[in-house]
């Protein structure tokens, strides 16, 4: 690997010759000096990644390096809104407890003076990490740049430098120079590195492919790696292989026979993450989605709630692929800023291909279980129509609940109208208060004692002539008595076989966020909520049923969650 050592020396020479060490995009100038120092503690999370104050968004280039996990993230060190963006940097040995370091990248050069935006990390041969990121110049032109550790012997990689040959990739003629961003993790194939850059032209979402032999000189491929009409800007593209036969993660450069590939894009117009499963045609350097995988708004999503600008990385220590996502604020008001509601990151999840090979599955990383405290259990408990049972003995505002429901009979399931393609709209029309045949049943999280407030996470089962259709909802419309805040109902269909008449649900409750995993991780929904009554010790947790069919709580495990060490 001598060539890579020479490359590293070349990069450092370029940097030193430069003379000195380097220390969703709507700007709210009226709020830039407004700090979120006094975040309302009622809503500050206990085990989700969150800075002590100020705005964060996209997770940038998470990685595992020499025994330490690194998370970089878009961060405003000066205020509680988007702006003044730098690359925040925190480290961990377990993905749960984090220590904040100084920012890794700050705007300082002509090519990034108006923004050091999202990007990714890649581990080069000889175990050398490198960051690719989008810089924005004073004219709004977006270019792809790189940074390297100033001192590889520093176990925390505190300081990063920008060599003098930046930018590496400029927008060519025909490329939308103000919509050209978020380089992916690179992969190695046939003697060249490859990287994707997201873009948009005439409402067509595009992932451009660039190739390089040395990671310095890049050439744009003749044709886009993949694109789709009427999907708008593709932010934060992510491309990686998944095994057809194992939950183990794969290195991004793995090209074996028994794999599919995943292409994820964050649709700027929708503010949600969508992915397709497909085939990487290596001879043509093109990606072709499976026939059952749809690009755009009708496609598959990692998460059907507040979840955006995600990034995965391969963890070689435990042979797994880990997914990070930003719990984005879908609505934004001046009142939000004053309360310091400035974004968090979702719990890191492992991601793998479902055995049906039609979708991915996700589950919280196993390290989260180390925070579990007091445990209560429930089994073989009947839930008749209109009943709710409180789950006592845990801290309901800070909890982990894993439950399996049993449905004695599916005969009372409502007929499914084939026009009900939009799960979120269906949940809005048939929410937790609307009685049904089989369901709604599930959990009332962050609930006040008299149910003036609650966030309902529930199933509803429908039937067609050929199969049953399962809907999972996370309905926040009753989550808060406060007016003027965003309280949506989120939903997704769960592709499960109900032959055993069982449905599983796991929910992570953390004061102002509820992350739920239905059907063993087939459908995930994250909701950000702001209760006024159901806070701290005044929060309650219930299992409920409003369907005609009696539901059995077959097994329920609930734990109080301890607080993580956070920045």
Automatic annotation (TrEMBL):
<dbReference type="InterPro" id="IPR050551">
    <property type="entry name" value="Fructan_Metab_Enzymes"/>
</dbReference>
<dbReference type="GO" id="GO:0005975">
    <property type="term" value="P:carbohydrate metabolic process"/>
</dbReference>
<protein>
    <recommendedName>
        <fullName>Beta-fructofuranosidase, insoluble isoenzyme 1-like</fullName>
    </recommendedName>
</protein>
<feature type="signal peptide">
    <location>
        <begin position="1"/>
        <end position="23"/>
    </location>
</feature>
<feature type="domain" description="Glycosyl hydrolase family 32 N-terminal">
    <location>
        <begin position="48"/>
        <end position="364"/>
    </location>
</feature>
<feature type="domain" description="Glycosyl hydrolase family 32 C-terminal">
    <location>
        <begin position="367"/>
        <end position="560"/>
    </location>
</feature>
<dbReference type="InterPro" id="IPR013320">
    <property type="entry name" value="ConA-like_dom_sf"/>
</dbReference>
<keyword id="KW-0732">Signal</keyword>
<dbReference type="InterPro" id="IPR018053">
    <property type="entry name" value="Glyco_hydro_32_AS"/>
</dbReference>
<dbReference type="InterPro" id="IPR023296">
    <property type="entry name" value="Glyco_hydro_beta-prop_sf"/>
</dbReference>
<comment type="similarity">
    <text>Belongs to the glycosyl hydrolase 32 family.</text>
</comment>
<keyword id="KW-0378">Hydrolase</keyword>
<dbReference type="InterPro" id="IPR013189">
    <property type="entry name" value="Glyco_hydro_32_C"/>
</dbReference>
<dbReference type="InterPro" id="IPR001362">
    <property type="entry name" value="Glyco_hydro_32"/>
</dbReference>
<keyword id="KW-0326">Glycosidase</keyword>
<dbReference type="InterPro" id="IPR013148">
    <property type="entry name" value="Glyco_hydro_32_N"/>
</dbReference>
<dbReference type="Pfam" id="PF08244">
    <property type="entry name" value="Glyco_hydro_32C"/>
</dbReference>
<dbReference type="GO" id="GO:0004553">
    <property type="term" value="F:hydrolase activity, hydrolyzing O-glycosyl compounds"/>
</dbReference>
<dbReference type="Pfam" id="PF00251">
    <property type="entry name" value="Glyco_hydro_32N"/>
</dbReference>
């Amino acid at each position: 690997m001598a060539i890579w050592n020479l490359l590293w020396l070349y990069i450092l020479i370029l940097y030193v010759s430069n003379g000195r060490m380097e220390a969703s995009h709507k700007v709210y100038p009226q709020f830039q000096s407004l700090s979120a120092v006094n975040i309302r503690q009622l809503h500050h999370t206990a085990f989700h990644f969150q800075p002590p104050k100020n705005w964060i968004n996209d997770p940038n280039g998470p990685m595992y390096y020499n025994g330490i996990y690194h998370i970089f993230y878009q961060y405003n060190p000066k205020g509680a809104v988007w702006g003044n963006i730098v690359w925040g940097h925190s480290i961990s040995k377990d993905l749960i407890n984090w220590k904040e370091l100084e920012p890794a990248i700050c705007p300082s050069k002509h090519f990034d003076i108006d923004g050091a935006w999202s990007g990714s990390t890649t581990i080069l041969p000889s175990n050398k990490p490198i960051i690719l990121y989008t810089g924005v110049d004073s004219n709004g032109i977006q270019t792809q740049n790189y940074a390297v550790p100033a001192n590889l012997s520093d176990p925390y990689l505190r300081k990063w430098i920008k060599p003098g040959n930046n930018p590496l990739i400029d927008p060519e003629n025909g490329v939308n120079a103000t919509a050209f961003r978020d380089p992916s993790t690179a992969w190695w194939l046939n003697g060249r590195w490859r990287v994707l850059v997201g873009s948009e032209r005439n409402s067509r979402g595009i992932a451009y492919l660039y190739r390089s032999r040395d990671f310095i000189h890049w050439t744009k491929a003749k044709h886009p790696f993949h694109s789709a009409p009427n999907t708008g800007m593709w932010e934060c593209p992510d491309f990686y292989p998944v095994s057809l036969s194992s939950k183990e993660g794969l290195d991004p450069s793995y090209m074996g026979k028994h794999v599919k590939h995943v292409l994820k894009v964050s649709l700027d117009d929708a503010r949600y993450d969508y992915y397709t499963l497909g085939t990487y045609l290596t001879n043509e350097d093109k990606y072709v989605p499976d026939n059952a995988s749809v690009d755009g708004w009708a496609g598959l999503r990692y998460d059907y709630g507040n979840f955006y600008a995600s990034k995965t990385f391969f963890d070689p220590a435990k042979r797994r692929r880990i997914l990070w996502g930003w719990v984005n604020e879908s609505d934004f008001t001046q009142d939000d800023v004053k309360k310091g509601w400035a974004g968090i990151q979702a719990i890191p999840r492992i991601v793998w291909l479902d055995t049906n090979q039609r979708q991915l599955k996700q589950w919280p990383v196993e390290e989260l279980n180390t925070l579990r405290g007091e445990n209560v259990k429930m089994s073989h408990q009947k839930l008749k129509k209109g009943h709710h049972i409180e789950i006592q003995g845990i801290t309901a505002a800070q909890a982990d609940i894993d439950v399996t429901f049993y449905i004695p009979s599916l005969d009372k399931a409502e007929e499914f109208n084939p026009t009900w393609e939009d799960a979120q709209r269906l949940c809005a029309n048939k929410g937790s208060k609307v009685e049904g045949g089989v369901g709604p049943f599930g959990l009332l999280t962050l609930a006040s004692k008299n149910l003036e407030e609650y966030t309902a996470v529930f199933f509803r089962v429908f039937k067609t002539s050929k199969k049953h259709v399962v809907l999972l909802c996370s309905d926040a419309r009753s989550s808060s008595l406060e007016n003027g805040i965003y309280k949506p109902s989120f939903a997704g269909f769960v592709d499960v076989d109900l032959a055993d008449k069982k449905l599983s649900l796991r929910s992570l409750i953390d004061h102002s966020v509820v992350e739920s995993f239905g059907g063993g991780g087939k459908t995930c929904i994250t909701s950000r909520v702001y209760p006024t009554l159901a806070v701290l010790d005044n929060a309650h947790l219930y299992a409920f049923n409003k369907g005609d069919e009696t539901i059995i709580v077959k097994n329920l495990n609930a734990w109080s969650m301890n607080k993580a060490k956070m920045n």
